[in-house]
């Protein structure tokens, strides 16, 4: 990400969590307490009275327990700050299902409508009325309401179904809410509990006002109104427009300078239709029953609310995707066909491509001496690390990593340097992220960076300059490509569920920004802008959220699973040059563990033909199939753990791979060498009497058979079942990929297949 959200953020639904730094082993921490709502004693008029009674029943402590939040929509229970020594007693309290500590979370931080094919004259935009009256809940750093992106011009009155409010404060009077921003709340009690003091409002606002920029950017990406002549320092100039430009925004400020809380429960109670959450776990995704996002999203799904989440920015390593519960739409990040070229011209005449958003004094019209930061104090260009005598008046090559990209340029400037070339290392490959540098600077890929460093090493008098070429739209390089930072599968919790689900634009995205901080989000940046260009799966998530809002308006009867299915089965895997989508980390072709079902295609999603639908009972059967017992499932159902909650459900779902998911992830190796999955599709096309035939592109080394191979729909039969058998026939490496397509001549309903091999392969089988 391009913001100071490299700081750890902590998240739970309707709660606020923080990592405890106290040296005391019994120092209070914040916990989620899940309860069975049916177990509330009748003597308590309200649930919060019951919760306070539970806390008062705990053994004495030097730190009295404090009730922070209660919740009842996405989940049932409360959050409280208590001492660890009190935990055993709390867990034994009648009606308590589970108690979980805080979990570390971090945020995952316009040309895109046209790149996505959205137009006023045809397709999803006019057929959904731009999602008017659909309410998108954005859980982030708040919102900067004065921007033109949040104008309510030509919008109808606030939907009558809306139950939320606009919190008023000195810097955010309720009058700032309108027919676009229909709700705004700030959740700070847990934050103040962690700080053990009130928020310093000279540093950050104790209101829904966004002082970081991230929330304003995601909100305007998902549902911002059209703004003409938008740009960042004249870069990307044009009309800025959210995906769902008539959707309403409910802003929930959950992130602060040191962490995040979430308001999923409040958002569901308030009446949102889509939740956009660009936040996730740090490290591997936690088990579903310990993952507050997964639990909250399960509750939201029960209420018909689609939850769209970022996959994370921990790529390109495998198993890094987070927010991977099957009831969540998990979104990776990709590029668009817009570049901000800033090329390096070496003294020997070679030109190496780079990107930059620098706006300021030009370099001299002659080449400058060129040095490598490793020879001047430190390759990563930390502040104060460079020797002025070796840097002054020169262009410095700094390696990416270790500190903020723009901060490196500031270190060069502080040491007297005139320019910087930021060189990718193997970790980032050829991924290029444009930044609004504070001195003349550009970023180059690993290959170019190595060439520049080799030139410095071999040349007696190495020199260079940087040529800034503004905004360029076109087919070179090809787009989309998957960002190297985008987190990937396989799914380390449930290998039978393919994650991420889709990719969407998340690199160098222009959208609204806060007026409180500069475009780099660094304290040393005095500039203020209305729009900013940043990158991350935090940017791809609101694109998908906005498209989901459009589909919600077009098909209000569709379930969240049906909307997700439409997005997945219509996604594409070919870039604008006609080749397969590539992975910027390796330069090779991407695959379903990297891009899921593919890149979202809004107009095709309007008419998917068939959908793979799911409901709460299906998800409960899934939890049973992965071995969850009654106590774990109770966290999701909010009912006591008595009895066999999985009785009858295991038969409904023989194994996790039988979940009616729009993709196929298969483990082969050992046993019989055959894996079978069942699926059920629903005809949502305009032709009631439709006949679909299957086309299989089998992964190398795998035989795939589908039975039946033809699906016949009619007025009395809108759903049809089929079974897929995967048989290993030859070892084709650790992973192989293919697809299954159903077509009736006008629709193509595509599902990716990802196969992993475990336990080796016996040629005798």
TrEMBL record:
Signal peptide: 1-25
Listed PROSITE patterns: SUBTILASE, SUBTILASE_SER
Family, similarity comment: Belongs to the peptidase S8 family.
Bias-annotated ranges (Basic and acidic residues): 200-215
GO cellular component: apoplast
Chain segments carrying region Disordered: 200-221
Keyword annotations of the record: Apoplast, Glycoprotein, Hydrolase, Protease, Secreted, Serine protease, Signal
Name the record gives this protein: Subtilisin-like protease
Residue intervals of the Inhibitor I9 domain: 30-108
Sequence intervals crossing the membrane: none
Superkingdom classification of source: Eukaryota
Compartments (UniProt record): Secreted, Extracellular space, Apoplast
């Amino acid at each position: 990400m391009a913001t100071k959200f490299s700081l750890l953020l902590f998240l739970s639904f309707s709660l606020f969590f923080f990592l405890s730094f106290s040296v005391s082993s019994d120092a209070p921490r914040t916990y989620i307490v899940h309860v069975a709502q049916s177990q509330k004693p009748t003597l308590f008029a309200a649930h919060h009275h019951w919760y306070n009674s539970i806390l008062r029943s705990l053994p004495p402590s030097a730190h009295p327990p404090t009730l922070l939040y209660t919740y009842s929509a996405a989940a049932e229970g409360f959050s409280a700050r208590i001492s660890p020594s009190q935990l055993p007693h709390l867990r034994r309290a009648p009606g308590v299902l589970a108690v979980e500590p805080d979990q570390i979370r971090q945020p995952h931080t316009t040309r895109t409508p046209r790149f996505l094919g959205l137009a006023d004259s045809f397709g999803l935009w006019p057929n959904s009325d731009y999602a008017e009256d659909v309410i998108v809940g954005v859980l982030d750093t708040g919102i900067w309401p004065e921007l033109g992106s949040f104008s309510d011009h030509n919008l109808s009155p606030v939907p009558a179904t809306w139950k939320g409010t606009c919190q008023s404060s000195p810097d955010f009077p309720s009058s700032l809410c309108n027919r676009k921003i229909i709700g705004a709340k700030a959740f700070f009690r847990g934050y103040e509990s962690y700080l053990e003091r009130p928020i310093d409002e000279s540093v950050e606002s104790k209101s829904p006002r966004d002082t970081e920029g991230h929330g304003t950017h995601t909100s305007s990406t998902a549902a911002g109104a059209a703004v003409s002549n938008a740009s960042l320092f004249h870069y990307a100039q044009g009309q800025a427009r959210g995906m769902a430009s008539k959707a309403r925004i409910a802003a929930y400020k959950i992130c602060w300078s040191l962490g995040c809380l979430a308001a999923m429960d409040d958002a569901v109670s308030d009446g949102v239709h889509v939740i956009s959450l660009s936040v996730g776990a740090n490290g591997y995704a936690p088990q579903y029953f310990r993952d507050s996002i997964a639990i909250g999203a399960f509750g939201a799904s029960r209420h018909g609310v689609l939850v769209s989440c970022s996959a994370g920015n921990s790529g390109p390593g495998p198993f890094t995707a987070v927010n991977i519960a099957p009831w969540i739409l998990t979104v990776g990040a990709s590029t668009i066909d817009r570049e901000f070229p800033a090329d390096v011209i070496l003294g020997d005449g070679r030109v190496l491509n780079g990107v930059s958003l620098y706006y300021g004094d030009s370099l001299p019209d002659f080449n400058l001496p060129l040095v490598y930061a490793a020879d001047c104090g430190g390759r990563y260009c930390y502040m104060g690390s460079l020797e002025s005598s070796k840097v002054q008046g020169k262009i410095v090559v700094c390696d990416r990593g270790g500190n903020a990209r723009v901060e490196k340029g500031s270190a060069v400037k502080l040491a007297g340097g005139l320019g910087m070339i930021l060189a990718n290392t193997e970790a980032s490959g050829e991924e290029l992220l444009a930044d609004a540098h504070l001195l003349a600077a550009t970023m180059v890929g690993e290959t170019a960076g190595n060439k520049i460093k080799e030139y410095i090493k071999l040349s007696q008098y190495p020199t260079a300059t940087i040529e800034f070429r503004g905004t360029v739209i076109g087919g070179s390089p090809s787009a989309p490509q998957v960002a190297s930072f985008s987190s990937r599968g396989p799914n380390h919790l449930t290998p039978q569920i393919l994650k991420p689900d889709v990719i969407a634009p998340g690199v160098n995205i222009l959208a609204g920004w806060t007026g409180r901080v500069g475009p780099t989000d660094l304290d040393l940046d005095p500039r203020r802008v209305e729009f900013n260009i940043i990158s991350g799966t935090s940017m791809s998530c609101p694109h998908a959220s906005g498209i989901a809002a459009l589909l919600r308006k077009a098909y209000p009867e569709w379930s969240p699973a049906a909307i997700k299915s439409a997005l997945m089965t219509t996604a594409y895997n070919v870039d604008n040059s006609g080749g397969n989508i590539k992975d910027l980390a390796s330069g090779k072709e991407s695959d379903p563990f990297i891009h899921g079902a593919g890149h979202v295609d809004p107009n095709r999603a309007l008419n998917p033909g068939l959908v793979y639908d799911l409901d709460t009972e299906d998800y409960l059967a899934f939890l049973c199939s992965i071995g969850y017992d009654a106590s774990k499932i109770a966290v999701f159902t909010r009912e006591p753990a008595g009895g066999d909650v999985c009785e009858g459900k295991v038969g409904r779902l023989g194994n996790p791979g039988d979940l009616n998911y729009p993709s196929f992830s298969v483990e082969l190796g050992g046993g019989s060498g055959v894996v079978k999955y069942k699926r059920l599709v629903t005809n949502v096309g305009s032709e009631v009497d439709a006949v679909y035939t299957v086309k299989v592109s089998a992964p190398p080394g795998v035989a795939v058979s589908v039975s039946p191979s033809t699906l016949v729909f009619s007025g009395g039969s809108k759903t049809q079942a089929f079974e897929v058998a995967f048989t290993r026939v030859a070892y084709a490496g650790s992973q192989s990929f293919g697809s299954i397509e159903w077509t009736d001549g006008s629709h193509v309903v595509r599902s990716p297949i990802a196969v992993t091999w475990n336990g080796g392969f016996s040629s005798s089988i």
